[in-house]
Amino acid sequence: MRLEQQLGGLPVLVAALVLAWNVTLAGWIASRRDREQWFGRLTGLAGLLIAPAAVLAVAASTDAGARTVTGVTWLWPTTCVLMVAQTALATGRRLVSSSVGVPLTLYNAIVAVIAVGDYLVMQSGHAPLALQGAVAARDAVLGMVMGRAALASPFAIMVPLLAPAYPARWRFSALVRAVLVLYAAAAMTLLVMEWPRGVAAVRSYELASNTIIPREANSLALGVRLLPVISGVPKSRDARAGLRLADRVAPDAVLLVLRVPAVRASGLDSLARVLAPYRSDSVRIMIALAFEQPDALAALRDPAGTTRLRVDALERVLERLRPDVVLPMHESLLPSGRATAETDPVWWAAQLGNAAAVVQRMRPATRVLWVATRFDAVDSARYVRATADDSPITDAGFAPTPSFGGLPSLDARLRAADRWVQAQQADARRHWILVDGLPRAHGDAAQRDAVRHVLAWSSARRWVRGVIVGEPSDDLQMLGVYAADGRERSVVEMLRRVLPSSGGR
């Protein structure tokens, strides 16, 4: 198990503990009889707002919550500024020692800058370079324990700290104060160190390629993710958003990701009706299957049951949705940060073999796809298996998403894809590319430039038969071509200009 998978929940735990500390401390300071009245009121106000403001900051980053709280998203940066004022005044009036107050004030100031940058990006899609670099630095620091999940997770936030004015009552509270000051000093140092790298990551997209080489008709399909991950009957709001996106860009292919086993027959029938207009317009239908629990752990407990679950789900999808391409083992473009076990290679190969056999028996016209998302040694070995001459997998693919370094990290994944194809001499095999950018970490323009860069790279390689752009919205991760509040990001207009000229259908 990877270190970031073991520690992925640590930032959330730290944020919860800091919130509890702030609320408790604010109540204690406000109740002191010897407090200065103005300071007690300021501390009480900050302590009152910090917990609901943090909840709103998380909710505003998700599709489910943003439309409800969009009018009060300013509360988080405002509260962070109040926290800066509280620590600065406590330090200036010598209510707390400078060895405690200065690190807390500097830490809070940086967190407030990040909060303002986050707010601007959510509202308009861009922020001044220094602020966007601060947001990228925050994600890089949290990524040390969360991994790449920090780039798009709504829970990737840092919480400011109230100054613990007045002497501690107990030794334990004095120890807690010392630990929090050390945490603030360490976090502040890391943020300052990562800030220049964050700015460089945001600026790196200026070097993205804009030259998309024209290809003859039917040689390169360009498409989009149509809906968020589906766990049942698709929501009418999501279906309307998918129709809106398809109308805007007229894709050659649409991809749906189904979470199994939550999708039942009624949900598949509803999806069939949603897909009917696209099928009649000769749009390729692609279905990916994702599973609710870590399959490696489930396979250890009940290998036969896990296999049967996958086979049943695939059979229902083939019968009711009749896809042109099926991805039976879908992995998110960015990891979720949850603790998962590494999948056994033999079990992985057996699952794909079973899926291919089911497809061959029920619908031979459907192509079976596997996509590399991690670009590590495990994915390299899987690619060798998937593209072997005797492999039952008909199509292979790559999901090159940028990382903390911006465009250079994206280029590193594209170079890996080139090496793997050349090493396996797999250029005769059909490949699909799944791509998205990082609109929260690096800004809307960076997402647009990253997607266009991958489109340009794909257009120059004859073995790439299709490029799929997604996520459609900020549902579970902030990667959508539509923001959580419904705002259309600039990548959609770019796709609208590019897709009609592809001739991919």
> Unreliable segments (pLDDT under 50, ≥5 consecutive)?
1-6, 501-505
What is the mean pLDDT?
86
Class by alpha and beta content: alpha/beta
Helix and strand element order: HHHHHHHHEHEHEHHEHEHEHEHEH
Structure description:
This protein is of the alpha/beta class. Helix content is 55%, strand content 9%. It is built from 17 helices and eight strands. Strands 1-2-3-4-5-6-7-8 form an eight-stranded parallel β-barrel, surrounded by six helices. β7, α16 and β8 form a beta-alpha-beta unit. α2 packs antiparallel against α3. The protein starts with a helix and ends in a 7-residue tail after the last helix.
Which key features would you list for this structure?
55% helix; alpha/beta; elongated; eight-stranded parallel barrel; 505 residues
What is the compact description of this entry?
By secondary structure, the chain is of the alpha/beta class. The chain contains 17 helices and eight strands.
